[in-house]
Amino acid sequence: MTADAFLFWFLAFVTVVSGLSVILMVNPIYSALSLAMTMIGVAAIFVTLNAYFLAGVQLIVYAGAVMVLFVMVLMLFDLKHEIQAFTRGRLTGAIKIASVGILSGLIVGAVTMGLKTPVVITASSDVAAAPTVDTTRALAENLFIKNVLGFEVLGVMLLVIAVGAVALSRSKGGTHARD
Amino acid sequence: MTTMGSTTIEIAINLVKTILVFLMMVQAVPILVWLERRGSAFIQNRFGPNRVGPLGLVQLLADAVKFLKKEDFVPEKGNRFLFYCAPVFAMIPGAIAYMAIPMSVPLVTESYTFLIQGYEINVGIVFILGISSLAAYTILMAGWGSGSKFSLMGALRASAQIISYELALGLAIVGVILLYGTFNLAEMIQSQSGSLNFQGFGYTVAANWLPNWGIFYQPIGALLFFAATFAESNRLPFDLAEGEAELVAGFHTEYGGFKMLMFFIGEYAHMMVASGLMVTFFFGGYSIWNFSPEEVHSWIMNTFSVAPFTANVLNSIIHFLSYTIKFALFLWIFIHVRWTLPRFRYDQLMDLGWKTMLPWALANSILTAAIIFIGSHFTL
Lengths: 179, 380
Fold this sequence. Notes:
The structure holds 2 protein chains of 2 kinds.
Chain A: H1 3-24, H2 28-48, H3 52-76, H4 80-87, H5 90-116, H6 123-129, H7 135-146, H8 148-170
Helix pairs in contact in A: 1-2, 2-3
Chain B: H1 8-43, H2 59-69, H3 80-99, E1 107-108, E2 113-114, H4 124-132, H5 135-146, H6 149-180, H7 185-191, E3 195-200, E4 203-211, H8 214-217, H9 219-232, H10 244-247, H11 257-282, H12 293-304, H13 308-338, H14 346-377
Antiparallel strand pairs in B: 1-2, 3-4
């Protein structure tokens, strides 16, 4: 086994195991920490694929900011109420069945796709050429020149979502209602 | 640039370097602790530890033995797994991030270029920021795993603070990235060589008596970055996480012995990363003011009449010393500030982060981008 293959299998194992423990853990804090571990694993896989910039951004945004907020919020909340609300009921059952369906569809899809297309990787051409290409510049050109409209629209949408979330929490009956 | 894992030799060299840099950082911690205690004593008109050995230097050894011999315990209400994980994780982000900082000119032999840094990554800054942003987890794990209210409150404060100041930290560097046009730390240091010359609007303003350091181009960025790193490493004036009047010792209230020491090493590792980045971004890195590495190399060759390879080694050592002097200066500033400034109140801390530093950093990056664009496209 080459070093690259070993790295891939090791990182894939870590990522998949921590991904599984996100849904299998009983304590939500462990789940959140496992999700953070999954994101770190994905970032490490990005590094092995020479996508350094993407790996760094993945660490900064998802592992470093979003998940930390998740963990903090989980630590502050009393989760027993939430768990009780989501263990029984018709709606919850429907959501459970739907997610099982989606998961099995994903697995079946992955297996059939994997069987159909033979994996042909000529390692020398792709991997050796990658470091010389400035991937960060390519990414920037893609985002800010080619698809600049979509990128900006997404940014505006995110802003709208943030403002909307604040407005909802401040309105009557919200968590931060003014009166 | 060779990729990190291309050959077995490369992997082996990188592993050895990883261990070496880590040991270097761990070895620097006792010296810093000594400096901190003696320095604080002199600042406060005390003596500090001065009994064990010359100048109290052997006190550190005694402390290390004391730390190792202390009882190893887990609080009854705590979570054993997280409680043990947290101090181990505390050392990792700082150590990995520090390895990406170049500490001297690469040592060139006929067949191999030996970098005096853990590894070279083309997007060095992004990588360092990403890795060091993981430090919040260690604090949260320690706070939750201790099963104590003081620890949890300290951990929540600390991680909220780290997230808040990360934004200002990242935005303060944007100006630097725009200025040098690269994410690569070694290339940044190269573009800071020579003497100061501003280019733009079709003019070149040169000042031969000043080095071409980033601080002269990005003074606001440097100030914001340095202030934000204080918050990132949870040191005074931003050490709300361990405000002892309110929270005993914050997230490491329940820790003792060697586990406590590991948190200490983590904190000092953050200081070292911050100092190393300050030197690299704003103070020319390992480069010596007015002398390029090639000039130093030929000077060594002429003065000592040695073989080119020995001259290469000496060159690397001299530049490493240059880096270390600048690096130590910033570490001292960290220590001096800790014993000079009082602690912020929590709302002041958040106000400073979100309402002052973030807008300033944003304005700085927009202004820098505008000036670079206008300066390179139009002439006066």
